[in-house]
Write a structure and sequence with these properties.
The chain has 128 residues and is mostly beta strands. 6% of the residues lie in helices and 51% in strands. Strands 2, 4, 5, 6, 9, 10 and 11 form a seven-stranded mixed β-sheet that branches.
């Protein structure tokens, strides 16, 4: 059973940084792509970044490109999201999700087709 636990959220001023962590258990971490999503009040859930396991390839939504960096430590079964230059519009609950990786497919496609579990989320609040 896919189990994911996010941590690292909090209150930060605009321009500040946070690092989110997604700790995984219950499945073979090396076989899964991991993604970060966020859900802000009044908005639809947004997929913001993901990372494959096979080659470490990544995806970033335009809204976070150049500011956020995703990484994974397969030895620790953990994925990180380093968030820099935070803006008030980054305020949201941030979730990680896992999807069985398809050979030759991007992390985005693997998550879209094979999503298996979500964490409970961690709240990020960016004050202006």
């Amino acid at each position: 059973e896919v189990q994911l636990v996010e941590s690292g959220g909090g209150l930060v001023q605009a321009g500040g940084s946070l690092r989110l962590s997604c700790a995984a258990s219950g499945f073979t971490f090396d076989d899964y792509a991991i993604g970060w999503f966020r859900h802000a009040p009044g908005k639809e859930r947004e997929g913001i970044s993901c990372i494959s396991s096979s080659d470490g390839s990544t995806y970033y939504a335009d809204s976070v490109k150049g500011r956020f960096t995703i990484s994974r430590d397969n030895a620790k079964n953990t994925v990180y999201l380093q968030m820099n230059s935070l803006k008030p519009e980054d305020t949201a609950i941030y979730y990680c999700a896992a999807g069985l990786e398809e050979s030759g497919s991007s992390c985005l496609i693997s998550l879209g087709r094979n999503l298996e579990g979500w964490g409970l989320g961690t709240l990020v609040t960016v004050s202006s």
